[in-house]
Amino acid sequence: MPLMSLQGLRGAGGVARSLFIYWRPGRQRSLRRLYRPFIQPGGVAFDIGAHLGDRSAAFHALGARVVALEPQPALATWFKRLVNRPGVTLLPLAAGPQPGTADIAISVGNPTLSTLATEWRQHVGARNPGFRQVRWEEQLRIEVTTLDQLIATYGEPSFIKIDVEGFEAEVLMGLSHPVAALSVEFVAGVLDVSHACMEQLARLGDYRFNAIAGEQRTFRWEEWQTPDTITQWLNGGAEGLASGDLYACRSDHPLLNTPNTFSDNESQNV
Asked: How far apart are CA 229 and CA 222, in angstroms?
């Protein structure tokens, strides 16, 4: 079979896997429940590394005007099929520390793991067993913007989701003031990226933190944690979690005075 046909089959398999994970029945309901405290109806939300648009769809359903960044053409095509609605703007861009261009390494069989982070890509396979079979077979030159530029164009977001496979700290370098709330991915074996994100957030302002394991919907702690506590948690290996997301709320965020209302059954199983 020709190489391009094999690549095409691997790409189709990767997209199918993502559709099963991110668009399975009931998932949108749990995403809306998770993000409701962060989204201001009529306000703006950013989805940086939008993939197939499941988060963008949830943000929009909660009343946000959504700005989504997805530089991979194949994923952007699927995004448009799945989240083609007024109030959602899809941009074929990446975000970074300054505007310009950069090369994204694309994993054809695992498009959700495509990345601009060269050093991260070189180390994650050796440090995290879940990445040992991942290959980045293609490169694509893409345009890069910054969070500051997006804010200047679309307005300040009430929430920013950043999931860009090891490039999260660089994305935060392009932000010059503290937004209300955001999330960044963490991955076992390369927690130095998470430490760099913490440094960038400390530069911006006073935040409190929580975490979610993998694709679950339950925060690890009822009380939001200080930067020092999270740094210690990361130093200890983040409880051995394979991956997840760190959530940051500015210290004046209303959620910090609201009890955790996510139940385990509702939040984890869809």
From this structure: 14
What does the pLDDT read at residue 269? 46
pLDDT digits (tens, 9 = 90+) for 143-168: 999 999 999 999 999 999 999 999 99
Rg of the chain over Cα atoms, rounded to whole angstroms, equals 18
Residues contacting 217, CB < 8 A, separation 6+:
30, 31, 33, 34, 262, 266, 267, 268, 270
The residues, ordered by sequence, that sit 6+ positions from 29 with a Cβ below 8 Å of its Cβ are 270
Tracing tokens 């083609």 back to the chain, one arrives at 84
pLDDT value of residue 11: 57
Task: Kindly provide the residue ranges of all beta strands, DSSP E only, lying in 12-87, ordered along the sequence.
Answer: 44-48, 65-69
- Per DSSP (E only), the strands in the chain are 44-48, 65-69, 88-91, 93-95, 100-106, 138-145, 157-162, 181-187, 207-213, 243-250
d(CA 154, CA 234): 34
The amino acid at residue 58 is: A
Rounded CA separation 234/238 (Å): 5
List pLDDT tens digits, range 81-122: 999 999 999 999 999 999 999 999 998 888 888 999 988 888
Distance CA 97, CA 168 (A): 10
Is beta strand 243-250 parallel, antiparallel or unpaired with respect to 181-187?
A: antiparallel
Residue 146 CB partners (closer than 8 Å, separation 6+): 95, 96, 97, 98, 99, 174, 175
**Contact (Cβ atoms closer than 8 angstroms) between residue 179 and residue 239:** no
Residue whose structure tokens are 């929430």: 159
